[in-house]
Amino acid sequence: MEEVREECRSFPLIGEPAPDFEAVTTHGKIRLSQFLGKWVVLFSHPADFTPVCTTEFVAFSKINDELEALNTQLIGLSIDSVHSHIAWIRNIKEKFDVDVPFPVIADLDMKVSKLFGMVHPNVSSTSAVRAVFVIDDKGIVRAILYYPQSTGRNMEEIIRIVKALQTADAYNVATPANWKPGDKVIVPAPGTVEAAKTRLQEGYECYDWYLCMKELPKE
User: Fold this and answer.
1) Going from the N-terminus, what domains does the chain have, and what CATH number goes with each?
2) How many angstroms separate the Cα of 190 from the Cα of each of 170, 199, 208, 209?
3) Interval 7-25: pLDDT, tens
4) What is the pLDDT confidence band of residue 1, given thresholds at 50, 70 and 90?
5) What does the buried/exposed string (b/e) look like for 97-131 if buried means 16 or more CB atoms within 10 Å of the residue's CB?
6) Cβ-Cβ contacts under 8 Å for 216 (sequence gap 6 or more)
7) Strand partners, 106
8) By the number of CB atoms within 10 A of the CB, which of 28, 66, 79, 118 ranks highest?
């Protein structure tokens, strides 16, 4: 049964290359591969002109500059037309005085949604769930988040994930629960018995040989 499921799976998992695509957006046609060299936060929402999605688009727009400073491109998506997207973006500007600065994919044929596993039939066969794919600058999927239609996403957590992944890559470390920039990070655990013997004498803040932490250099 597991082999059958694996053969049928067509969407990427963490650690796999994000499938390339070309799509019509509110900024014209884009290809995912054009953003290689940058990180990408690709997110889907169920529908335009809906309450929770509207609050999310206001919130995503407000973190766009911070993501850009992290070399990260924000891309939205729903199974709506580009004209619906444009009308909704204009409505958000009118009602909230917020400009939506990132492209929004018009995925009427559900090509991208299905490519990334954003359509969950038990929820809806005609709209996407609230999915977030964090893709690194080499085009590899590094994190995936799913939320139900009733629950808006936490923007601070999305930024935290990007910063944590970039920190882990830059310093070859891991980040503990509730980590935020400036907190101590986790040193990779020893891989041999001999290394485990000496770990506690290496100057880290250790709880045991397998869990040691350190501070990163101040930027």
Assistant:
1) 2-153 (3.40.30.10), 172-219 (3.30.1020.10)
2) 19, 7, 11, 8
3) 455 789 999 999 999 999 9
4) very low
5) ebebebbbbbbeeeebbebbbbbeeeeeeebbbbb
6) 167, 171, 173, 184, 185
7) 78
8) 118
pTM of model > 0.90 = yes
Question: Among 116, 148, 162, which residue's Cα sits nearest to residue 11?
Answer: 116
pLDDT for residue 9:
57
For the record, the structure tokens of 66 come out as 């911070």
Q: Enumerate the active-site residues.
A: 53
74 Cβ contact list (under 8 Å, min separation 6)? 40, 41, 43, 60, 63, 64, 67, 102
Cα–Cα distance between 7 and 116 in angstroms, integer? 16
CA-nearest of 113, 47, 112 to 85 is: 47
121-131 pLDDT tens trace: 788 877 888 99
Residue with tokens 């470390």: 173
In 206-215, which positions are buried (b, 16+ CB within 10 angstroms) versus exposed (e)?
Answer: beeeeebbee
